[in-house]
Write a structure and sequence with these properties.
By secondary structure, this protein is mostly beta strands. The chain contains one helix and four strands; from the N terminus they run ββββα.
Length: about 60
């Protein structure tokens, strides 16, 4: 399963870690994903959703 939000599609971003001497090495920023039981097409499914989508109410959580 990819590290990607099931609602908005937010995924890992890549960039450089820059040291004091300006040497650059690769690093990655991972989205803040949470496993959630959500209602999708009238079924309860476990999906990974970012916290921004959870707070915005874009996900209908299952009880």
């Amino acid at each position: 399963m990819a590290r990607q939000c099931a609602v908005c599609g937010k995924k890992v971003a890549y960039g450089h870690r820059v040291s004091h001497s300006n040497r650059k090495t690769l690093r990655r920023w991972e989205p803040n994903l949470h496993p959630v039981r959500a209602v999708v097409r009238d079924k309860v499914v476990r999906v990974r959703v970012c916290t921004r989508c959870l707070r915005a109410g874009k996900v209908t959580r299952a009880l």
